[in-house]
């Protein structure tokens, strides 16, 4: 042991000191490599699956992973067992809280107990109105299977929405398939959708839901700020920015208000070819069909 | 006779570190059981298991039976709805990641920090940490099976790792160590569900059993290193106050998770008093249990008496 304290008279390292330095370098290098591996793994594994939603008030994912200590107090105070802690292999960072809307949605408690329980601020207490939560954004992602898009009146996602008529509205449009019915299309509005996932949980389709809550980053395009929306500008300015426009007459619609292009009388059709009783099936916006 | 045993160059069988590290003794503590009876010769071990399992039970009666005493886990918890407790090692990582937590976490971390600073940092390792059950089991099995091979890394590795864990937290802005930390993973797994975390815990067990004797807790774990650093002022310490009666049976070295801490006190190497003041000592009390001569006892750091 006494060798270790020996230093060369001229300041050069003795074998013992050299060995000591070598050992220290080995240990430090090993620890550094191990830690670097952990760090790289953590970067690699920090991507959140699109179906995993963070609790209300969660910081942006990068900040969240620095603040959340994986204690599970939010999970414990969730009265509906919506939240769970990720287990190794779930695809979500181990030990962090999340929920899957299709399984159990957030019930949007008024007092937001999960946020109150968080000791670290990973769930931000400045969120005091649950309607301001943005856990994700609902997207009616599959128009081929959505019953309302098929022309039925399912409306379940709309009915269960806790922010009904603001976060989800039913937009009436013409049904071109039957040509005589309306389709009421569930339409999500990002101004009001909290991402609670009730719509996704309630969707009546047997397996995957046609409406899904996705991370806002996935669900929403970036707004093109260089485009100005005429109607918004007009409202803000209290009138058209370019003055009143000249109203040019449209032939055959002279008696209708400007902009109303609906046909009032069925257009004249060419006579059916002789020898045939049935006229060809009419089509178009106003087919003239009568029951 | 006893004073010369530890000196280098003596007969290999009595080289203290060598014997302990090689695991010469398969069943230490037989003499103590003969002299004092099984129960008395396992007093501290039983108390320690009671503490470890009792703390775990406090966390589990909530989710299992709906009796909420403690919510959360060892990372951060709330006892009876009033007492916040937070792991200061996690808070250190949080600070490194550039996050200032809410005052509940800071208060909880302060309480835990103060407790371990006063009573002894590594009390956490031996009296609270659930991984201790795993590594103790591995060490027991290693002794019984007579496994002697393997290579333990340098014991300084844990301090370097502790430093780099904080550096990585700062670089990534996240609690990177929590991706792999078997300590929090085991405790959280027991309470909230495991997933594949069994694999990590199993890995620690096999590492200690096959590769490195007392490898995880004694050489690698940066959490243990953190609590070691809190141990400089530990109040509760083990004293070899009857070291004159030592018959060099080596049982204490065989069971000690940090065998290097015993020699200065037992053999008066580099110190005169019989107190084990090394910060790495976990105050687990196993040496007290297994000693057939009642050499050791648990006392305070101010009690330097020798009898």
SSE succession of chain B: HHHEEEHHHHHHHHHEHHHE
Main β-sheet description of chain A: 3 strands, antiparallel
How are the strands of the largest sheet of chain A arranged? 1-3-2
First-residue to last-residue Cα separation of chain A = 107 Å
Mean pLDDT of chain A: 83
- Largest interface (CB < 8 Å): A-B, 49 and 60 residues
Task: Please give the largest β-sheet of chain B.
Answer: 3 strands, antiparallel
Q: Which class do the helix and strand fractions of chain A yield?
A: alpha+beta
Strand order of the largest sheet of chain B: 1-2-3
Count, helices of chain A = 8
Radius of gyration of chain B: 20 Å
Give the N-to-C terminal Cα separation of chain B. 18 Å
Strand content of chain A: 5-15%
Output the number of helix runs of chain B: 15
Beta-strand level of the residues of chain B, as a percent range?
5-15%
Number of strands of chain B: 5
What spatial form of chain B do the alpha-carbon principal axes imply? globular
Oligomer: heterodimer
Low-confidence residue ranges of chain A: 1-6
